[in-house]
Amino acid sequence: MEKLRKMVNQIAYTPQQNRLSKLSALQLSLIPILSLASTLYSFALPLRCRLYQLGLLQKNRLPVPVISVGNLTWGGNGKTPMVEFLAVWLSAAGISPLILTRGYSGADEAKMLQRHLYGTPVKIGVGANRANTAASFLKRYGYISPWKHSDTDLEGLLSNRKQGSCSCSDQIGIAILDDGMQHSSFWRDIEIVMVNAMIPWGNHQLIPLGPLREPLTALTRADIVVIHHADLVSEKDVEAIASEIQEVKNSLPIFMSRLAPLYFLKAGNTSCKLALMDISNTLVLCVSAIASADSFVETIKKLGPVFADRLDFSDHHLFQAKDIDMIKMRLRNLQSEFAMKPVVVVTEKDYDRAPEVLKYLDPYEVLVLCSSLRILPHNGNTEESFKKCLWQHLKVSNKA
């Protein structure tokens, strides 16, 4: 199954004109089947939308504003880091947010959020039925309009207060819908769409032939677009992506973001933090099961290791005994080739998915890279203008 996922992923990110030179005979044989499935999917999308328009499928509306963070492709776009960014910002401003997440495949993203936001007023609801999860949390904690909260004002929301400096009601003031763009059963007050600058649209085909969950025309529903990993591509590439977005909706505010590395944790002892510079002049094996492994590897390379090798698995992959054997074999080969003991570096998502598995890599050290999302200044847009844009959209929606 892992090999099949990798083959399909390569097809999805290979331009049509490069298929014959880049894809294997087996991959080429899969294209007609994937194409048929994509065609069927393309018919199902507008039908589902029409059922919601006719009221035959019900939309849930919460008594608090809802911010949806989503994307058009199948992962690696920075949705969860953006969700955390919003939650930290709102809670620092005196609003208690509720994060609603599916907890997909081992709930690695939910576990990471729970660890990062422990001790804050942020609440995290995990479950496939997010309407039921939201109802449960709202019943338990109650809710309050963010515009009626005495500590909430635009000046406070735009300031760089430290988290916890504002008194925060335990009542829920805003819901943040993680991976919410295709979750049509929820009314949302603002739609944030994340785009991966390194691989924005793949081959421009719908799943499963391509990575698109919806056509690019779905950007007309967006209120804000954030081009993530903008620091890892050229300015020309960023402008090309922005131009393509504006062709769909010219008035759409576009912001840039990056995933800023903060420090390393030691696997098995997360109370032990190491500086980023600690891997400079070391031999590193990057092991990841995320949608955007390239961004992870490029980040590690910038930290100055002697050499950074990589082993990539499909997104949310659960490591098995055979995977551990493969990783250890690669480590032994690296040690033999470079005459120095390599260090394994994983992402937080990989660690939180199955932390107990990584202990079987002993005697090799395993480090966990911790990062957070940052809004990059670009064409006059800053973190402050991003927050202001969000708040203005929310206030307009509240008056509607």
TrEMBL record:
| Database matches in InterPro entries | LpxK (IPR003758)
Catalytic EC class:
transferase
Q: In which pathway does it act?
A: Glycolipid biosynthesis; lipid IV(A) biosynthesis; lipid IV(A) from (3R)-3-hydroxytetradecanoyl-[acyl-carrier-protein] and UDP-N-acetyl-alpha-D-glucosamine: step 6/6
Which keywords does UniProt give here? Answer: ATP-binding, Kinase, Lipid A biosynthesis, Lipid biosynthesis, Lipid metabolism, Nucleotide-binding, Transferase
Q: What is its EC number?
A: 2.7.1.130
| Protein's recorded name | tetraacyldisaccharide 4'-kinase
Is Kinase tagged as a keyword? yes
On the tree of life, the source organism's domain of life is Eukaryota
Picking any one GO biological process from the record gives: lipid X metabolic process
A Pfam short name: LpxK
Any single Gene Ontology cellular-component annotation? membrane
| Lipid biosynthesis keyword on record | yes
> A GO molecular function for this record?
ATP binding
